[in-house]
Amino acid sequence: MRPANEALIVIDMQNDFCPGGALAVQGGDEIVPGINALMDEFRAVVLTQDWHPANHLSFASQHDDAAPMTMTEMPYGPQVLWPDHCVQGSQGAAFHPDLRLDADLIIRKGFRREIDSYSAFFENDRATPTGLHGYLSERGITAITLVGLATDFCVNYSALDGAKLGYAVMVIESLSRGIDLDGSLGAARQAMGDAGVVLG
User: Fold this and answer.
1) Helix (H) or strand (E) holding 162
2) From 50, 84, 152, 154, active-site residue
3) pLDDT per position as a tens digit, 113-156
């Protein structure tokens, strides 16, 4: 068992990000057994869940003549326009059926129509908190291990924000999978390394 100051954060292990889903990450379902086993090592386990309204502005369908996986500019900065995914209450938004759900906390993110939320800690304005930092601080957590989907987006953003907030951060790459959109995976690895995130 890991020390009490360490937490496991499982990022967005949802049906829409697994094979057959609306925004599938290749091999996303392959990491579920390893994540389930890793949960036994931690006293604190947190799951995050993408939780979008059906008309979320990060969806390409909400923009005239916009194709999925293209870029647009939002008030908070550049934004990938995604296929509709993880719509609140849908089967796609549900956790993978084989994932253990015996976590201490589930953080839902991306539920405000006008702003996307990759990070477990902040929405994409990098200022609006999800509440996770307060929860971990109250529990005396100082080190976090991240796994899940996708390495180059939600895992990356969560890792960078965790490091910025002062946590010791590790990302287990064998229990994460990436999208690699125009080199995003390599860029994410570089950014995480530069921020002091340990890639294990």
Assistant:
1) helix 156-164
2) 154
3) 999 999 999 999 999 999 999 999 999 999 999 999 999 999 99
